[in-house]
Amino acid sequence: MTAPIAIIGAGIAGLSAAHVLNTAGHEVHLFEKSRGSGGRMASKRSDVGSLDLGAQYFTARDRRFIDAVNQWRAKGCVAEWDPALYQYRAGALTPSQDEQPRWVGTPRMSAITRAMVGDLPVSFGCRITEAFRGPQHWSLQDAEGHNHGPFSHVIIAIPAPQATPLLATAPKLAAVAAGVVMDPTWSAALAFKTPLETRVEGCFVQEGELDWFARNRCKPGREADYDTWVLHGTSAWSRAHLDASKEQVIEQLHGAFAEIIGCAVPEPAFTLAHRWLYARPAQSHQWGALADADLGIYACGDWCGTGRVEGAWLSGFDAASRLLDHLQ
Ligand SMILES: Cc1cc2nc3c(=O)[nH]c(=O)nc-3n(C[C@H](O)[C@H](O)[C@H](O)COP(=O)(O)OP(=O)(O)OC[C@H]3O[C@@H](n4cnc5c(N)ncnc54)[C@H](O)[C@@H]3O)c2cc1C
Ligand SMILES: NC(=O)C1=CN([C@@H]2O[C@H](COP(=O)(O)OP(=O)(O)OC[C@H]3O[C@@H](n4cnc5c(N)ncnc54)[C@H](O)[C@@H]3O)[C@@H](O)[C@H]2O)CC=C1
After folding, report:
1. In this predicted model, what pLDDT tens digit does every residue of 105-146 receive, in sequence order?
2. How far apart are CA 113 and CA 246, in angstroms?
3. Helix/strand/coil (H, E, C) string of 101-170?
4. Orientation angle between helical segments 12-23 and 309-327, nearest 10 degrees
């Protein structure tokens, strides 16, 4: 019997790779440091319902990804989100509706990766710290010192700075990953008992602390007891406030939001802040995935492509396709 393929990271890239390999008849095993799947597409359960603190929506431009989105729609875990879009620039908030279809997981963003996990074997709460290549097989060590293996191949589907040490056996790939800069994003959520008197449901902000804000509860399938909003700081602001306390971040982003939104903003009934240290690559790449096919190690993730959900999915697809090509 051949050994299974190890995939480190159960975000959309790792699960995209898992799906391709599983469909081709290969046994895979995923390792995920968190308690659930999704990574930056995960949703946070809170007292005011679930909140999409990371990816807000996604677009689909590549035919292969459009096909995947259509399959998720058929399963009921993805729906179109057509918010009343605005932009804020030069001190003015103006409608900015467009024709771009935008998609979200339903009833929460994490529904997509949850459906992708299905009955694939995943070790949750397991942070991999090293990948070793033996004479024939790979083995992995986790943060608690446990060994896992043997595996025929390893796919590393985590942000570049975290992937670098795991790529030590393939120094060329490690050097490429080490050169990738990833920017942080501070995310804050606010919930109001009484809905804010505004038509705005999503806003691209082009000046100041904020990059984007959205009315979480207007996405399809979300709980609607509270008027929930998610605010994202810009990369520059988030980096400058990397070590700020959550209270300071909430206060500043709440203040910036209140200045822009153009209606009375009462004290929120609930607030939350989350720091994404490796939120997005500082620039996009066209690598698809990184591969040392002879060694049997691959790396993928949004940082190998466009730094978006679609780019991450395509990168996982690419890593798995290259592995299958090499086996032929
Ligand atoms: C605030 C924010 C807003 C965003 N908004 C959008 C948006 O609106 N539209 C869009 O298209 N994209 C958006 N993105 C980007 C999008 O979320 C990512 O591009 C995509 O989700 C990345 O997927 P991935 O699988 O490459 O990585 P991840 O989602 O980061 O998945 C990697 C997984 O690996 C796990 N992991 C890490 N290290 C280890 C380890 N050593 N061992 C085991 N497991 C490990 C992590 O816990 C994680 O689950 C946003 C991102 C952020 C942070
Ligand atoms: N905060 C974070 O960490 C991350 C945020 N990400 C955002 O995720 C979104 C995904 O990108 P795409 O899928 O290409 O989505 P998209 O086509 O909706 O947006 C791409 C970009 O175009 C601009 N834009 C698009 N539509 C409008 C509009 N109607 N009015 C004004 N400006 C507009 C805006 O700057 C936006 O960021 C982008 O907004 C990214 O900035 C991506 C990755 C990480």
Report:
1. 999 999 999 999 999 999 999 999 999 999 999 999 999 999
2. 28
3. CCEEECCCCCHHHHHHHCCCCEECCCCEEEEEECCCCEEEEECCCCEEEEECEEEECCCHHHHHHHCCCC
4. 30
- The one-letter amino acid code at 167 reads L
Is this prediction's ipTM beyond 0.95?
yes
Q: Is 213 near ligand 1, meaning CB less than 6 Å away?
A: no
Return the ligand 1 atom nearest residue 311 CA.
19
* Pocket lined around ligand 2, Cβ cut-off 6 Å: 58-59, 85, 87, 96, 98, 100, 185, 204, 211, 232, 279-280, 307-308
Residue 93 neighbours by CB distance under 10 Å:
17
> Positive or negative CA dihedral for 31, 112, 115, 284?
negative
